[in-house]
Amino acid sequence: MKLTYAVVIERMPNNYAAYAPDVPGCVSTAQTWDEILAMIHEALIAHIEFLIEDGDPVPEPTMSIDDAISHHSKALAEFDAEVPAEFAEAPTTISTTFSSVEIEIPALQTVSAG
């Protein structure tokens, strides 16, 4: 089964961070651009495989890149509005990139009660 998810990749002062808005909790960090692309790909595969193993539903990839941009912008605005100024010392984001990551998950196999 092939799935393509929109991802948000942020360049921070000392590393990169990435997440897939359609897959809550699926995040990754890395030191270089090439590493973050590989790491978010691996994180998505592992996350989806764990969901399948646990019998949980696989999140449908519903967001386009434009949707991911809107989601990210809204999340930043909510963060700014909800966090008191004295606690909002988050690391500075140098740049944000929006991309797609395609993953392939083995087809689900059913177990027959022999």
List keywords for this structure.
114 residues; globular; four-stranded antiparallel β-sheet; disordered C terminus; alpha+beta; 4 strands
Low-confidence stretches: 109-114
Radius of gyration: 16 Å
Strand order of the largest sheet: 3-2-1-4
Can you tell me the overall shape?
globular
Mean pLDDT rating: 84
Description:
This protein has 114 residues and is an alpha+beta fold. The chain is 34% helix and 25% strand. It is built from two helices and four strands. The chain has helices at 33-53, 65-82; strands spanning 2-11, 16-19, 27-30, 95-104. The chain has a four-stranded antiparallel beta sheet with strand order 3-2-1-4. Strand 1 (2-11) and strand 2 form a beta hairpin. The longest helix has 21 residues, at 33-53. The protein is globular, with a radius of gyration of 16 Å.
In short:
This protein is an alpha+beta fold and 114 residues long. It has two helices and four strands; from the N terminus they run βββααβ. The two termini are 26 Å apart.
Topology at a glance:
Blueprint: E1 2-11, E2 16-19, E3 27-30, H1 33-53, H2 65-82, E4 95-104
Antiparallel strand pairs: 1-2, 1-4, 2-3
